[in-house]
Amino acid sequence: MTRRDYLALSVLLLAGFVTIFDLFVVNIAITNIQTHLQASLFQITLVIVAYEIGFGLLLITGGRLGDLFGRRRLFQLGILAFTFTSLLCGFAPIINFLIIARFLQGITAALLFPQVYACIRVNFEGEKSRRAFGLLGMTLGLAAIAGQILGGWMISANIWELQWRSIFLINAPVGVLALVFSGYIYESKAQEKTELDWGGVMLSSIGIFALLLPLLIGPVLNWPAWCWGLLLLALVTLSQFVRHEMRYVHQGKTPLFNFDLLKNRQFRLGCLLVLCVYTTASSFFLVFALFLQSGAGLTSAETGFVFAPASIGFVLSSLSAPYWIKRFGNRAIVTGALCYFVSFIALVITVAKLQSGSGLLLLVPVLVGLGYGQGFVMTPLLNVVLTFVNIRFAGMAAGIVSTLQQIGAGFGVAIVSILVQWKLAIAQASSFISYRDALVSSMLYNVLATFMVFYLLKIMLNNKE
C-alpha cells in the first residue's frame, strides 16, 4: 500500500469505528442518562432504539447515493452531519430532545457507513482488499467492545463534569479529523447515469422502520397490538418493495436494490451469515451488561472491565487471523466459527454454576475464548461476503449488508429480551440468581445462532474452494 492508501484506510476505519461505537456505548450509559435527565424506562429505551432505527432506515439508500453521486462526497457529507448530530446529543437539555437527536444521528450514520464498505471494495484489490477488510472487521468489533469498556471509563472519569455527555462530544474532534483527511480517499461512482429510485427509497424506508420499531420496542412494552400491526405493515410494504424493484428493472431503470445480486448463491448465504452473526453480538452485549449491573451490582466502569477479556481475545484473533487464513485457507475461518459456537456453550455452563458475583473471575477464560472466536469470524467476514459482488454494485451491496447487520441486531435483542423477561417474571424477584438464570436462558439462543454461523460458513467457503 502507498502512503495515501494507508491514510485513506485510516480515515475510513475511524468513521466505521465511531458509528458502531455510538451504537453500543449508550447501553453502558443508560443508568447515568436516566438519572440526570429524569427519564422513564420507555424513554431511555427510545434513546437506544432511535439510533438503531435511524441507522437501519437509510442504509440501502445511503449506499445507492454513494454509487450515484460519489462515495467520497457522501462520506464527507455523512461525517459532517454525524459530527453535528453528535453535538446535538451531547448538549441535549431534556430526554425528548436526546431521543430526536439520536434518531437524526442514526440517519447521518446511515449515509456514512455504507461508503466505508464501498470505498474499501472499490479502492483495494486482492491482498490489499483482504487486509483492508480484515482491519475493518477488527475495527468494528473493537468499536462494539470499546462501547462497553471505554464508555464505562469515560462516564466514571466524569471529565469536565460532563457525565454521559462525554460519550457523544468525543465524536466532535474525531469527526473534524476524519473530514480533514477525507481528501485522501479516491472518489468513485457507478458508471451509469441514472436517477435515484424514489419509490424504492420510500417503500424500503417504511418497511424497515415498521420492522425494526416493534422488534426493538415490543419486548419492553410486552408486545402491544400496534407492534403486531407494524410487523404486518412491514411484511406488506417490503413485499411491495420487491414488486416495485422488479417492475423498475423491467422498465430499463436502475433500482435501489438490484435482485441480480441474489443470483449469486454465495452472496445469499453471506447475507444470511451476516444476519446470524449480528444477532449474537448485539444480544450478548445487552444481556451480559444487564446481568453484571442489575444482577451482580457492578458499576459502569466495573462492567467495562469485565468485558475486557473479550476485547483481548478479539484483538488476538484479529491480529492472528490473516496468518492462519493464509496458512490453512478457509478451514481457519470455519474453525474460528466453531470456537465461537463452543464459547457460548462454555459461557452458559459456567454462568449456570455461579452462586454470587464473587465468582465472576471464572468467566475470564470463557470471555477470552468468546472474543477470540468472534474476532475470527467478524474480521474476514466483510471481505468474504463482498468479494462475491460486482464492483459496480459496491455501494448497493454495502447498504444491504449494513441493513442486515441492523436487522440482525434488532432481531437478536428482541429474542433475548423476551427470554430475559420471561425468566425474570417466573422468578418474581430481582436477585443475582434470577438474573443469572435469565442470562443462561437467553444465551441458549446465541448457542443456536452461532451454530448456524458455523454451518453457513462451512457451506459457503467449501463451495468457494
Q: What are the key terms here?
A:
465 residues, mainly alpha, 16 helices, 82% helix
Low-confidence stretches: none
Q: Helical stretch count?
A: 16
How far apart are the termini? 27 Å
Quote the beta fraction: under 5%
The whole-angstrom Rg is 21 Å
Shape: globular
String of helices and strands: HHHHHHHHHHHHHHHH
The level of helicity is: over 70%
Mean pLDDT: 82
- Biggest sheet character: none
Describe this structure in words.
- With 465 residues, the protein is mainly alpha-helical.
- The chain is globular.
- The mean pLDDT is 82.
Outline:
By secondary structure, this protein is mostly helical. The protein has helices at 3-37, 41-57, 59-69, 71-90, 95-123, 126-157, 166-169, 171-181, 198-221, 225-250, 265-295, 300-328, 330-353, 364-386, 394-427, 432-464.
Secondary structure topology:
Blueprint: H1 3-37, H2 41-57, H3 59-69, H4 71-90, H5 95-123, H6 126-157, H7 166-169, H8 171-181, H9 198-221, H10 225-250, H11 265-295, H12 300-328, H13 330-353, H14 364-386, H15 394-427, H16 432-464
Helix pairs in contact: 1-2, 1-5, 1-6, 1-8, 2-5, 2-9, 2-15, 3-4, 3-5, 3-15, 4-5, 4-8, 5-15, 6-12, 6-14, 9-10, 9-15, 11-14, 11-15, 11-16, 12-13, 12-14, 13-14, 13-16, 15-16
